[in-house]
Amino acid sequence: MSKNKKHSIWILLILTAYFPLVASGCSGKSNTAPTGLSESAVIEINGEAISREKYIKALKALKQRYRLENSRDFSPDQLLWLKSDVTNEIILDVLFQQEVAKNSIKISDEELKRNLQQMMNDYQEDSFQRYLEIENISLQEWQNKLKNNLLIKSLINKVVNSKVSISDSETQEYFKAHPEEFQTKERIRALHIMVETEEEARNILKKMASGKKDFSHLAQEHSLGPEGVKGGDLGYFESGNMPEEFDDIFKLNVNETSAIIRSPYGFHIFKVIDKKNHRKMSFDESRKLIYNKLLQQHQEKAFQEWLKKIKDDASIKINYDILAQIE
């Protein structure tokens, strides 16, 4: 058996085992192009051909994403997995684009411009340009990808998410069936002082003990924490929301001050000024949490069912001979 034939059979096995989408609609032959598939096309999805050049470009982009620049960077097995990934990505992308067209999904120039600007604003100084250079894509290519993602998001909202609803009875049933999920943890409200050295922290405790200045004034004068200007007030927080070095402050009574605590950030003193014990949440308090959770679950299920349908309905052909030759 030739090297290319062995290679193409392995690709077929991998795609069939791990990417059922890719295998569906295929002829099952690994040594010839499927009937009706152009000799120059690698894949055809519902009549839309993916050329060798386009496939190689997508494979190169995936290699770059994994920081694998040339064939010496990965083994033959890794190349097979990369091909499986890129084949699946291409098919999904084409199927989504076809569904976008079928459902007449569009976005306005204003919406695209707003999203482009918002994403670019997330980058500091020249970091956006460096990102483009690292990814080896042009600004236009990046904009096209963003537009495609926005179209797909709008598509899913229209054909999937908009058809999902959660009734009040569902949220009530979930609340009754999962009481353990709807309990507040113990919360405390504490004042906080952070300084650089243990000596500073000791001097602050001495000033507190003298009664000349209270905790809040000392926090305003000495604390390096951002809450220092507010007298060190951290507000309410639950156990587990702070670094583990601070776990013992939950053992303090109201109006009790901690010993000096050392952390990677400095030296700390806390004073607990209020405590709220853990309790069961009411249905009204839990309603929004339950609704959002059930909505996400139902939308994910609906999306998977919709995705399976467009996969099952698709005609997908793969030329395994050409695929085996691509490196």
What is the helix content?
A: 40-55%
What's the order of the H and E elements?
HHEEHHHHHHEEHHEEEEHEH
Strand residue percentage? 5-15%
Stretches where pLDDT falls below 50 for ≥5 residues?
A: 5-33
Quickly give the CATH architecture of the largest domain.
Answer: Orthogonal Bundle
- In total, the number of domains comes to 2
CATH class of the largest domain: Mainly Alpha
Give a short synopsis of this structure.
With 327 residues, the chain is α+β, with helices and mostly antiparallel strands.
Can you walk through the features of this model?
With 327 residues, the protein is α+β, with helices and mostly antiparallel strands. The protein folds into two domains: 3-161 and 307-325, Triger factor/SurA peptide-binding fold (Orthogonal Bundle); 184-280, Chitinase A, domain 3 (Roll), CATH 3.10.50.40. The protein is built from twelve helices and nine strands. The chain has helices at residues 3-18, 20-23, 52-65, 76-102, 109-121, 127-135, 139-159, 168-177, 198-210, 215-222, 283-313, 320-325; strands at 41-45, 48-51, 183-184, 187-195, 233-238, 261-263, 266-276, 279-280, 316-318. The strands form three sheets. The protein has a four-stranded antiparallel β-sheet with strand order 5-4-7-6. Strands 2-1-9 form a three-stranded antiparallel β-sheet. A hairpin with a 2-residue loop joins strand 1 (41-45) and strand 2. The longest helix has 31 residues, at 283-313. The chain is elongated and about 90 Å long.
